[in-house]
Amino acid sequence: MLPEDPKLPLERSTKPAAVEGEEKNAGQTTGKLAADRDSGLSYTALQADRFISSTSGNFRMSDLEADDDHDFAPNQVLPVANLPSDFDGVPQDGMEYLFTVRRDAKSLPRFTRVDNPYEVDEIIHATRYGASSAQENEQLPSEEWRTSFTRSFQNYRQNLKQAMAKPLESAPLTLPSFQSREAWWRYITGTQPTGNQVQLPVAGEASTTESGEALANGAPSSANASQPSHEPTLSVLKQLSTKNTVQLLYWHSVWIDSFTETLEEMEQGQSMTSASRPLSQVHTRWMFTLLGRLDDHLTSHDISTLRSLARSCLRLVKAMGDAQQDPALTSESMELSTETNQTRVLGGYWMVFAAIVSVWGQTDLWEEARQEFAKTGACGWF
């Protein structure tokens, strides 16, 4: 072993001190990572362990309590004063106020409930309407009849749809203008309103001695002239759009309202000031067929028109029931000669009402009908 030569200069590093410091730290880090690998910990676990170790010295019990606050209050954004839990003084600043707010929030239950104020009302409602009198139930069609009619009417609509899908063999008909209510009245009934007598003629009484060409064109005829009535045939239905169908149903609601007003005026003993429009069973056949022609899905405006028609039918049935209870009015103004005819007249308008309710989901109208007949006790059903 050669002795050191004291004359030889010692080797000194030419690297800057900062670089030497980084290499030293890197060496220490490399050594620590190697030791960590030897311990079997994963890298992510090591990072988590180091984070916990670096923050454990700053751990406070208030941090744990702050975590519990998540169950009672939103995350803290503003600074909150660190006051004793039994603090009962007046907050001097916003931080102390927030402390009292969060403390009070912890004392409140997480869930609470109040009694439903409508529970008792619902019981009363069920008692008042559910246990209605037998007389009130007899005024409306029974639940069994409604169910049976709904099923039959839906089948009728399906059959009508299949029949209309077949090609039209005959030539298109000349129909009145859909803007002329008077022309359609003459086309359907074959007559014009004459005189002031109110009656319910049996279908088929209209004369068929003249052709309906002039009526189809909307031309006026003499006051006493009779024209052939027209039934709602497939040839007619094929030429109707949804808009036209709803328009015709609207005309029927106008005619029903006019006839109902006539009955109500005569019941009150008022004199007639205008010519009446007697309704016949041909009107119910038209309404029934037009409803079978309509689509299942309609606009809100069309639904509103159907609801108006249903209410018109309901009002007429009620007025007819009131008129039947007045012997003088019945004998002078209404030609309900047989029980069968009476059943057909009332039943026809109830069918129109039930068709609108069932197909287009206007079930609330049944409750309106119940309330309407409960007011006067009129005879609404047959």
Automatic annotation (TrEMBL):
Belongs to the gemin-2 family. Residues 219-230 have a biased composition (Polar residues). GO terms for biological process: spliceosomal snRNP assembly. This is Uncharacterized protein. Residues 1-38, 203-230 are annotated as: Disordered. Residues 1-14 have a biased composition (Basic and acidic residues). PANTHER family: GEM-ASSOCIATED PROTEIN 2 (PTHR12794:SF0), GEMIN2 (PTHR12794). It comes from the Eukaryota. GO terms for cellular component: small nuclear ribonucleoprotein complex; SMN complex. Signal peptide: none annotated.
